[in-house]
Design a protein that fits this description.
It is built from four helices and ten strands; from the N terminus they run βββββββαβββααα. By secondary structure, the protein is α+β, with helices and mostly antiparallel strands.
Length: 221
């Protein structure tokens, strides 16, 4: 048996480098790019370019229709020159738009639905090696079809595909769905559905407790 002792993980322990200076080299509505200088006891001075997200988290919404299907939006993505299937998603128009408000707007604009209930079920860092971008995932239920908006010039006619959670999982396995936030959201939804089944049998999984608490908190406001 190994006698190696592993340190308990602490994400907030002291940084191994010191930031010396930074200046902005690019600005856009969605993000800025900073050139940052660091000092390290091992290698001395070095520089990195860091993408700073503006106006809070990116927001993704995974919905479930009354007949048990997930709305996925066809998107053409310029950087990769390919079409993708994604959950509705986007970012705030300004610093005053809250994540829940973004979720309401993007679900309507991209998928063509309004939700009776929206609950945040996950949050993650997209690319921590070079970006501050976080994505918050909301679960939308009680969906009602409404008129959709337009996505942009790169995707003039985006269709919405309705798939079951099982079909969506298969599409992840066969690499039809490759968008990270969509994969995470589908896995979270499958966990939620399994938790609901467990609750019906008398169990009380943590995810169900979290969703129930979030619903209670929203109703009390």
């Amino acid at each position: 048996m190994s006698e190696t002792t592993f340190r308990r993980f602490d994400p907030w322990r002291p940084a191994p480098v010191k930031e010396e200076a930074r200046h902005q080299v690019m600005h856009s509505h969605y993000f800025n790019v900073d050139q940052v200088s660091f000092d390290s006891s091992q290698v001395g001075h070095f520089e990195r370019f860091i993408v700073e997200e503006n106006n809070g988290d990116t927001v993704g919404i995974i919905g479930l229709t009354d007949d048990g299907r997930i709305p996925l939006v066809e998107q053409y993505r310029l950087p990769t020159h390919r079409w993708t299937l994604e959950i509705p998603a986007g970012h705030a128009l300004d610093s005053n738009e809250r994540p829940h408000e973004v979720a309401v707007r993007k679900l309507k604009e991209e998928a063509g639905y309004e939700a009776k209930e929206l609950v945040q079920v996950a949050r993650f860092i997209n690319t921590p090696s070079f970006s501050t971008q976080h994505t918050a995932i909301f679960f939308a239920s009680g969906l009602t079809p409404v008129e959709r908006g337009e996505l942009g010039p790169e995707t003039p006619r985006p269709d919405v595909r309705l798939v079951t959670p099982e079909e969506a999982s298969d599409m992840i396995t066969n690499a039809t769905i490759v968008d990270a936030k969509t994969i995470i959201a589908i896995m979270r939804l499958r966990e939620h559905l399994e938790a609901e089944q467990a609750e019906q049998s008398g169990a009380h999984p943590r995810l169900i407790q979290r969703i129930t608490k979030a619903r209670s908190d929203r109703r009390s406001k």
